[in-house]
């Protein structure tokens, strides 16, 4: 691994963002946001979701869903076929937080996958395990090891199961599930990530309510909210900095949501009830599904599931529109707007090909540049996703155009990316600031580049390296 990439990985490990081996979650335990993408070069990519619940016979269970990204595994083959084999070990450890109950499940899998000309795949191998436990709060630790490389990744989460013998009102974690387009008979499957690709047909939210007070019916309120959020690509480096009143500066306004749907349900019978809400797939944006009720002491119980609906194949770039959108960093804005007005996918794909070939000329060289560009786009999606696609963020734009920085210096509210051994050279050192510190009410790292008119020539030179193919030999 190159030295500058190692520095980048070290930075994100220290920062606790998408490159950590643990599951990245908010400090607020009442809001579930799933797993952010986990990118560590050479390591299996793991995403998990766990929920505690009671069975119809009041048996305490933990449902653990593990997604392993196929493209992150090491494959072997013994012939010339397109079928490759990977072998993984999966371990799930359940540890009671305030007790001594433990349980471990270990399984091994041989995964066959057919690659069509590329080893890069965002498809996942999914394993769902239901583990019998006892009422209580547990840490769920999932580890996947690639048997070929010997490398392992780990994720942690928590799950709580109420005691059916105690007269307590309880809400479980809200679980998010999805169903693929064109598969009406298929069951809903758990969504383990914060992001939801817009290729899905519908969404389902499920949670369990426990009411052991036989004399007092329970009222459960649910709401589906949409938050105003910035969805625009990053502006050029030489533009003015964002105004504090603008949405790109604010990022996402979680104080003024729009109510998409609301419901009130009355539970007249005691016991545990599994409640489900189904919705057709929502338009792209930032959402929260929240559940609220009141316990016997008048205290509010609250659970929620945050998510963002992204592009069709997120974080991958596959369709013509997905390929065209990130070209805004290489094209004149008006030319890009004209390209995005093309509705026919085949015509749009031809326009994209013309753009690359008309600039680079050589087809083989163009193919190498295209592969590098969209590899950077996908990595930006995995490393910098927040309320919008990672490639649209300021960090994503800089990563795509310039690649991973050689050094990263991080302070309380700022960080500096350096592409030079001289840390004081303004041509190769860039500062980012975030308007809001990450907290339970704003769980995103919204770093903004400190723009400068002097960056015009730097960005122009970098764009020309991409358009001429020089990026293959001169990265900055």
* The CATH topology of the largest domain: Immunoglobulin-like
CATH architecture of the largest domain: Sandwich
Low-confidence stretches: 1-28
The SS-based structural class is alpha+beta
Which range best describes the helical content: under 10%, 10-25%, 25-40%, 40-55%, 55-70% or over 70%?
10-25%
Contiguous helical run count: 8
How many discrete structural domains?
A: 2
The chain-level mean pLDDT equals 87
Q: N-to-C SSE series?
A: HEEEEEEEEEEEEEEHEEEEHHHHHEEEEH
Rg computed from alpha carbons, rounded to a whole number of angstroms: 24 Å
Can you summarize the main beta sheet? Answer: 6 strands, mixed
CATH H-level superfamily of the largest domain? Immunoglobulins
Strand content: 35-45%
Query: Which shape, going by the Cα principal axes?
Result: globular
CATH class of the largest domain: Mainly Beta
Q: Please give the number of β-strands.
A: 22
Quaternary structure annotation = single chain
Cα distance spanning the termini: 19 Å
Topology:
Layout: H1 3-15, E1 31-32, E2 46-54, E3 60-69, E4 83-96, E5 102-114, E6 124-132, E7 136-146, E8 152-161, E9 170-171, E10 175-180, E11 189-190, E12 195-197, E13 200-211, E14 218-227, H2 247-250, E15 258-267, E16 271-280, E17 285-294, E18 300-310, H3 320-324, H4 333-340, H5 345-360, H6 363-384, H7 394-402, E19 407-410, E20 414-418, E21 429-433, E22 448-449, H8 455-468
Parallel strand pairs: 1-18, 12-18
Antiparallel strand pairs: 2-3, 3-6, 4-5, 4-7, 7-8, 9-13, 10-11, 10-13, 13-16, 14-15, 14-17, 17-18, 19-20, 20-21, 21-22
Helix pairs in contact: 6-7
């Amino acid at each position: 691994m190159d030295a500058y990439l190692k520095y980048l990985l070290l930075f994100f490990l220290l920062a606790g963002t998408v490159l950590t081996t643990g599951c990245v979650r908010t400090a607020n335990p009442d809001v579930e946001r799933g797993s952010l993408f986990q990118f560590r070069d050479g390591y299996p990519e793991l995403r998990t979701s766990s929920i505690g619940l009671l069975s119809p016979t009041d048996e305490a269970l933990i449902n653990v869903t593990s997604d392993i990204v196929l493209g992150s595994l090491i494959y072997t083959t013994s012939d010339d076929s397109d079928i490759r084999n990977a072998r993984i070990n999966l371990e799930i450890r359940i540890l009671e937080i305030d007790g001594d109950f433990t349980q471990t499940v270990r399984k091994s899998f041989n995964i066959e996958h057919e690659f069509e000309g590329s080893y890069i795949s965002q498809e996942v191998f999914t394993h769902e395990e239901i583990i019998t436990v006892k009422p209580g709060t547990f840490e769920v630790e999932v580890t996947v090891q690639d048997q070929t490389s010997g490398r392992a990744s780990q994720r942690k989460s928590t799950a709580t199961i109420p005691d059916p013998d105690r007269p307590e009102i309880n809400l479980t974690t809200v679980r998010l599930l999805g169903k693929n387009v064109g598969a009406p008979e298929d069951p809903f499957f758990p969504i383990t990530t914060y992001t939801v690709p817009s290729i899905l047909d519908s969404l389902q939210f499920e949670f369990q309510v426990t009411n052991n007070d036989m004399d007092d019916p329970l009222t459960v309120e649910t709401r589906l909210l949409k938050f105003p959020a910035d969805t625009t690509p990053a502006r050029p480096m030489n533009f003015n900095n964002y105004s504090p009143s603008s949405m790109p500066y604010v990022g996402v306004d979680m104080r003024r949501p729009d109510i998409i749907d609301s419901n009130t349900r009355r539970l007249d019978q005691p016991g545990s009830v599994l409640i489900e809400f189904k919705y057709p797939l929502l338009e792209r944006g930032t959402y929260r599904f929240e559940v609220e009720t009141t316990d016997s002491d008048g205290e509010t119980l609250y659970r929620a599931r945050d998510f963002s609906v992204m592009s069709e194949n997120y974080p991958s770039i596959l369709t013509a529109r997905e390929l065209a959108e990130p070209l805004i960093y290489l094209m004149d804005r008006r030319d890009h707007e004209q390209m995005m007005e093309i509705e026919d996918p085949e015509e749009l794909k031809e326009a994209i090909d013309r753009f690359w070939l008309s600039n680079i000329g050589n087809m083989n060289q163009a193919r190498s540049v295209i592969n590098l560009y969209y590899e950077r786009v996908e990595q930006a999606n995995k490393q910098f996703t927040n309320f919008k696609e990672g490639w649209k963020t300021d960090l994503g734009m800089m990563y795509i155009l310039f690649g991973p920085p050689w050094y990263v210096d991080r302070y309380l509210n700022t960080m500096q990316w350096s592409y030079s051994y001289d840390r004081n050279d303004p041509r190769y050192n860039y500062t980012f600031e975030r308007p809001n510190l990450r907290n339970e009410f704003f769980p995103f790292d919204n770093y903004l580049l400190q723009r400068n008119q002097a960056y015009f020539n730097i960005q122009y030179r970098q764009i020309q390296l991409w358009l001429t193919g020089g990026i293959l030999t001169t990265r900055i």
